[in-house]
Design goal:
With about 160 residues, the chain is α/β, with parallel strands linked by helices. It is built from four helices and seven strands; from the N terminus they run E-E-E-H-E-H-E-E-H-E-H. The strands form two sheets. The protein has a four-stranded mixed sheet, covered by helices on one side. A three-stranded antiparallel sheet has the order 1-2-3, with no helix packed on it. Strand 1 and strand 2 form a beta hairpin. The chain is globular.
Length: about 160
């Protein structure tokens, strides 16, 4: 999948944080904000596209937000991939006390309330998403049917250090 394979279909909010791209048989929604307070209004804008057989959500978060008693899991890789209703065996099930918020959480809740399944993935990264930490995400995209050459979206670099 190359950016040229998709055309910009819609910019659905004034801040341009939500953009939709389409080609002949796929629609991709890219929401580039971390502020979960906007999620409800954004969900209202994309709801018309959610009543389809297959919806996949992918969220990217800091590894600092991932909760586990297995510290080795956190230390051994740049990224941790978890899923719900996963289509790939290497995305182990996301378990409590971890939870999904924001637009992905809203999509999952809406589809579940309407008896529809959602394939959900959460990628926890150490620092910002770069060429090294995006390998897991690139593999995931490929394995669920979205062949991508290079992950090149502009991600904000942010520190997860709080004092």
């Amino acid at each position: 999948m190359k950016p040229s394979d998709f055309e910009l279909f819609a910019v659905l909010n004034p801040s341009q944080a939500l953009k939709m791209y389409k080609n002949a048989n796929k629609l991709i929604c890219v929401y580039n904000r971390r502020d979960i307070l906007d999620s409800g209004s954004i969900l209202n804008e994309v709801m018309q596209f959610l009543n389809i057989p297959k919806v996949i959500t992918i969220s990217i978060h800091s590894k600092a937000q991932y909760k586990t008693e297995n510290l080795r899991e956190i230390e051994e890789s740049f990224t941790i991939l978890k899923g719900l209703n996963s289509e790939v065996d290497y995305a182990k099930e996301l378990k409590c006390p971890n939870f999904i918020v924001g637009l992905s959480g809203g999509v999952i809740s809406w589809r579940q309330a309407n008896n529809m399944r959602t394939h959900t993935y959460v990628v926890y990264v150490d620092g910002s998403l770069d060429r090294m930490t995006s390998k897991t995400l690139t593999k995931l995209f490929s394995d669920i049917g979205y062949k991508i050459e290079v992950l090149s979206d502009k991600f904000r670099s942010s520190s997860y250090l709080y004092m």
